[in-house]
Amino acid sequence: MKKLFAPDASRIGRPDGSAQPDAVGVEHLGGSPAHLVRDLTGLLGSGQVLHRLSDLVRYASDASPYRLLPQVVVQPQDAGDVAAVFDYCRRTGRHATFRSGGTSLNGQSQSDDILIDVRRHWAGMTVENDGARLRARPGTILSHASAVLARYGRRLGPDPASADVATIGGVVANNAGGMRCSLPRSAYHCVAGITFVLPSGTTINTESPDAESSFRKADRIGRRPAGPSCGNTRR
Ligand SMILES: Cc1cc2nc3c(=O)[nH]c(=O)nc-3n(C[C@H](O)[C@H](O)[C@H](O)COP(=O)(O)OP(=O)(O)OC[C@H]3O[C@@H](n4cnc5c(N)ncnc54)[C@H](O)[C@@H]3O)c2cc1C
Q: Could you identify the atom of ligand 1 that is nearest to the CA of residue 159?
């Protein structure tokens, strides 16, 4: 008879079923490739580029069963920094992925190239209209926002069980929900306005009167012959 709790060693490991060691390969022992560190430090400043082996290993996992070692981790401070990284990706053919709280369950916040940490420098919020609206930066932790809104007798619609770690940016990007979150309260339905950076580097603020025309213009630029990919490229 098959033992109920005996692990099947052939099924432990990567999604394809092969068992692989977790140890990082010797080629990574020196951390990020030197030219990558030099280029990105030149763009963003040294404090915003994480390149030691321990940094790469720290960011190699999220809440999913997958594991990807990034080549380098950057911590932009504003939209201009994000646009600069996108521009670098276009020029060099590299790709980048955002990571915020890292609670995604399907590997969305992992990268095998440039990982962009949009949590570290991106917290903060302002309550508007007596709590009817919250203007939050994307790295704001969801439960922090809800705690602030509770003083006004309000809360945000999405309530994922990961709310103590997940952030506004990750919740909106994943359209996260939760046990008390009906469709009209899902993340997409709760967004009144958003500022985002396109892979072309154009920043759009949907609350601005010229948002539509800027987006249309930027979209036309984006349709020119395909360049290297930027943004979320995994799966
Ligand atoms: C214990 C546990 C319970 C969970 N419960 C639920 C649940 O009840 N409901 C539910 O829906 N989910 C749940 N999740 C999944 C996950 O927590 C949510 O999807 C959450 O919204 C992810 O937020 P994050 O900040 O961790 O984002 P991350 O995992 O860091 O990123 C999520 C995605 O958003 C992108 N992203 C992040 N920030 C930005 C940004 N600023 N701009 C553009 N893209 C960005 C990333 O590239 C990635 O694709 C759970 C996860 C765990 C571990």
A: 8
